[in-house]
Structure formats: structure tokens, C-alpha cells
Amino acid sequence: MLSLLTTLVLALPAEAQNSTSSALGSTVNNASGNSSGLDALLDRAAGSVFSKLKGKVPDNLQEKIKKEIDRQVSKQGGNLNIGNTQALLDKVNARLPESIKDRLPAQVLTRLNGVKMKRLENFSYEPGKLDLAHQMSLYTPESGSNFPLIIYVHGGGWTNRPAARPTWLGAAVKRGFAVATVNYRLAQEPGGIFPAQMEDLNTALRYIKANASKFSIDGGRIGLWGTSAGGHLVALMGASAKVGSLDIGSGDKTYSRDVKAVCDFCGPTDLYALATETIPGQAWDTSSPMASLSLLLGGQAANKKSLADQASPMSYVSGLCPNILIVHGRKDNIVPFSQSEKFAAALAQRQAPVQFVPLDSAGHDIEKGANIDLALNFFDRTLKN
């Protein structure tokens, strides 16, 4: 990986080049001893691509590298099916010295969704944990500082991690928001039983607040957005911010878990009811031993009521909750509409600042179209004033 790593180092400021040289040499030496044919091919292709890009990192970097690999293989009369291009970038990222990553918050100017922005992708928010579960990415407007931040927590039934960025990323940055996408341990991963997800997300939130000036964001203007399982987690973070039993995770605890706003798209809010009060035609298994909810709780929810309640936003409803927008489709056959309806009613009863938007004709797939503007308008009101 010498050519690619060297290109990345040379793209850094001069003082950063010196501090990374020894780590770079160590990484290259370690890699050369066990480099596979694919590694060598990746090295040549990445080096060729970066020499043409002159230090810029385009949105379609993986595809450019894949095409160059295909070209080199074809030139030699061979045929190689690389498969998932994300695996190529993961392989590159895994071999970057941490000292390089630590200098990267200067960030790379790029264009995503037609919008110029700075991006810093796939870096760890917890020291010593370099696995995918503890990574985040950050996107900020191309100029300025002190940006309000939207932290996006992905869905996927607590067991899947999306490969793509949020489709609305460019629209949010264009409005002047910074956006952080944060990973967390999945239920089936080592140590992934709840409250692992809260440990990770609390750690990420504190890391972001502690490094706010470094990332050009305003640590006092942070909002959370999640859909489905992500909606559950952001609702739980917002509702439990003042609850000591969920004040878990690592990082500098002089930074609070408070946020100014939460946007919950169709997230489950009562996990015991989710498993025991299924609706006709519900397409999501929530009760069998191998259901994703059972994996999250380390057993079937019917037998884990105490933990299910601990993991439920409904358990922490109070007037201290931050501004919260709840959006849910009445025809949702994955997460019952009643989960959001009852949560919103409970918040309103406690006089929490809640806005509930039922979508009469929508199902579970609501993170699109006019609903994006609904969410961004909510963050405009709550994070910019």
C-alpha cells in the first residue's frame, strides 16, 4: 500500500507528514510481509488513481479503484471479480496509521449529492477500538465554523448496518448543518446485547462534544435523527438524557448527554409491547428466539420484560425531554403505528415539546421525499434559533 499511503501523507500539512512517517513505514513493512495478490493489485490500482486525482478524494473513489483494477487485470488477459467495492475501501482504511487518521479533521473537500462539503469518513470515536462498530463519519459545509450538528443513527433492526450514506446528506449540508453518521454494536456482534448500543452512542456523543471546536461544530446545538431501530435509539437517548442508569459508555463525563432535538422516524418505543402485542399482518418477527429483538435483549422479550422496559423510550417519558419530532406511517406493517402514537401522547401529557406527524397513506419506508424537508425544517427551528 506504499503508493496510496504516501499519497495520503503528502496531502497532509507539512507538520503532519513528519509525525506520520514512522507509523507509515511500520504499516507498510507489516503489510508487505503478508500482502496477498489482491493487496498488491489494490496498491497498484489505488496508486494509479490517486496520481491522476492529485490528492483529491471524489465520492466515487471505490468505483474508480475497482475500474482501474479491472483495467489492469484485463490488460494482462485475466478476469477478476472484486465484488463489493466497499470492501476495497475498508481494506485501505484498515491499513491507515492512526496518526494519519488523527490529523484528518482538516478533512477532504469533495462533492456529494451535488453539494461541496468537507468530509472525514470511517474514523474511531473510542480510543483503541478500530472496528466498524465504533466508527463514525463527519460531513461539514465547505467553509465556516460553529455549525449545528445532526447526528444520524442508522436503522436495520439492530442487526444490519447500511453501506450507503443518508440520501439527504447533501440537502442538510446545503442548509448549513454538519452531519455525523455514527455506528454502534449490532445485536449479534460481540458484546452487542443491550445496553451496548447506548454505551456506544453515549461515547460517540461525548467524543463529538469534546472535539467540537476541532470539528468546527457547536457542541451546544446537536440534534439526533434515526429511522426504525435508529428512531428507537435516538428517542431513547433523548428521553433518558437525565437518567443516571443509562449514563453509561466511556469518554469525558463532564460533557452531558443532553441534545437540543430528536427526530424519530417510525421507531419502536415500547419493546415489550412490540413483541407481545403484534398487529395483523405484521411483517417483522419480534417474538421468536432468533428475532432481531430477541438478539438485542439476549432472549425473547416476553421473558425479558425488565430489560425490554429499560430499553424502551416509553419508560423515560417526562417533561424534561428535548424537542422531539415523531413521524410514522399509519400503514406501517413493520413497526406498529401505535408505538409512536402512544409515545407522542405520553410526551404531550407530560407537557414535553413534541410534534407528532401521522402519515395516512405511508408504510415503513418514510425516510424520503417531503418527509426529509419535514425533518430538516424541524432542525432549522430547533438548532438554529
What does it look like?
It is a single chain. By secondary structure, the protein is of the alpha/beta class. The chain folds into two domains: 2-101, no CATH class; 108-383, 3-Layer(aba) Sandwich (Rossmann fold). It is 40% helix and 16% strand. A nine-stranded mixed β-sheet has the order 1-2-3-5-4-6-7-8-9, sandwiched between helices. Helix 1 packs parallel to helix 3 (37-53) and helix 3 (37-53) packs across helix 4 (61-75). It is globular and about 65 Å long. The model is unreliable at 1-35, 82-86 and 95-106 (pLDDT under 50). This is Alpha/beta hydrolase. It holds the Pfam family BD-FAE. Residues 1-16 form the signal peptide. Residues 137-347 form the BD-FAE-like domain. GO terms for molecular function: hydrolase activity.
Major pleated sheet = 9 strands, mixed
Query: Number of helix segments?
Result: 14
Under CATH, the topology of the largest domain is which? Rossmann fold
The geometry reads as globular
GO molecular function, one term: hydrolase activity
Organism: Candidatus Obscuribacter phosphatis
Signal peptide: 1-16
Pfam families: BD-FAE (PF20434)
Which helices and strands appear, and what pairs or packs with what?
Blueprint: H1 2-10, H2 14-34, H3 37-53, H4 61-75, H5 85-94, H6 98-103, E1 108-112, E2 115-124, E3 135-141, E4 147-153, H7 169-174, E5 178-182, H8 196-210, E6 217-227, H9 229-239, E7 261-265, H10 271-276, H11 292-297, H12 305-310, E8 323-329, H13 337-349, E9 354-359, H14 370-383
Parallel strand pairs: 4-5, 4-6, 6-7, 7-8, 8-9
Antiparallel strand pairs: 1-2, 2-3, 3-5
Helix pairs in contact: 1-2, 1-3, 3-4, 4-5
